[in-house]
Design brief:
single chain, Glutamine Phosphoribosylpyrophosphate, subunit 1, domain 1, four-stranded antiparallel β-sheet, 8 helices, binds aspartic acid
Amino acid sequence: MPTNPVLVVHGGAWAIPDEMVEAHLNGVRNAAAAGWRALERGGSALDAVEEAVVVLEDDETFDAGRGSFLNRDGKVQLDAFIMDGATLRGGGVGCVERLRNPVRAARKILSGSPHVYFVAEGAERFAAEHGITLCRNEDLVIPREVERLREYQAQDSSHGNDLFAPTISHDTVGAVALDRDGNIAASTSTGGTLNKAPGRLGDSSLIGCGCYADNLSAASSTTGWGEPIMKLVLAKWAADRVESGSRPEWVAQEAMNYLKQRLNGHGGIILLDAQGRFGIAHNTPRMAWALHTVQKQEAGITRNG
Ligand code: ASP
């Protein structure tokens, strides 16, 4: 008996300002529609999360692909991960500068390499050798981000910690999906944090931190301040609790409480198990998400407090 597919996407968790709500809603809706089309065509959960994340990477609203935050040197440096819950195969890229859609390269690593990660030039070389066209870093940089970096760098350095305040954008994107065969998958893609040191890798592309998928537990994608999330290996932490019998809806909220209580971290998470039960939670003021099931399509910018 085929399973009813489910797809959940997110477009970051932070204090999304009112004037940016519509762009976020459109972005997550378009991504959910693309992922759902893949599932309707009979595609796998992996296909669905890849297609959804490509749409979000292409949308300049988000901190992924073109339009991402700039690092200290004024360059876009991207990280992405994709994982198959059926086989536990994963593919990740870190610190890539010449890939429009890092998730496409991550998928090629998952399917065409015995390895799990490639970083920097090695990742770009792997992508090029597998038919992905490289772009120039300038093609990923947009004026809004040049201005944002300029303003940030002009501030007094005592503002250092503010970089991690929830008012600073966390527009990392991600998706989790369940397909007709009952398999789940997850993907996360990011430009990381504003003014990051070149070579800094966040949680998003780290297996079990920003992304995880195992049919026996859950598929998960996080966003938020990366360092606390990776210290807690949060995506795997959440998946393990689902495996122990807790409902994803409850675990997602617990994961956010744990992040806050243990390390004063902030962010958001989406979580989905192979029965189609899901959770969406954040401890930031707002989070952008969309959901597609056989019965309903929904998108929201939820609020806390
Ligand atoms: N988690 C990402 C990172 O630390 C950033 C984000 O979600 O906005 O790289």
